[in-house]
Amino acid sequence: MSDFKYSTITVSGADAFDFLQAQLASDLSRLPERNDTSGNPDAAEHRSAWCNPKGRVICTPVVKSVQDGFELSLPADLGELVMQRLTLFRFRSKVEFERSPGPTSSAEEELLKIRAGVPEIALAQSEKFTPHMLNLDLLQMVSVEKGCYPGQEIIARTHFRGASKRRCLRFSSDAPIQPGANVTDGDRNVGEVVNALGGELLAVVPLATADSPLFVDQHELARLELPYSF
Fold this sequence. Notes:
Structural class: alpha+beta
Shape: globular
CATH class of the largest domain: Alpha Beta
CATH superfamily of the largest domain: Aminomethyltransferase beta-barrel domains
Number of domains: 2
Oligomer: single chain
Strand content: 25-35%
């Protein structure tokens, strides 16, 4: 299996923090240069989400604080689109954007994300799911306490009402599965595969059908545990 390509978008300038804090769903004040003096390498970056005004996830970048601003790492097929759309929100903010090839990720690294229940949104999945459908609230990738950002009202309403009826669950199959494939209950489509590698996958499905027989391309899925709970 080949490596997976990523892009890096650098957001720099005097207003970089305020700009991204108003766009991304996570709280950037969690990053170490602002509140962490422990030297913990795990605090050097965190995964976030950028949503549209309807609360649908555009991308799930890894955000890293660097000397002149921030770096966003995301799948390469979304890189140019995300940079162009971020630029539309610049207005009078003193920020600059630069896109460059990011590191590649091996199949083993991608599989670890699936097993950790961490969804990776690429172009084909962009703007299809809400953060709660992808379990981003459980992964601390969205904040309902910081100020406004695109989709914040919808995300907060779902969070406080506990109204998400669809979640991202982990499954295995006896045959390779492709991202974007439909999940069926045997008769109708009930969900969609978000990420897959070989026979391991993450799929958004209704919680009401989570323990019922589910299939992708007539291959029955076996539900696997996630390392976190609802």
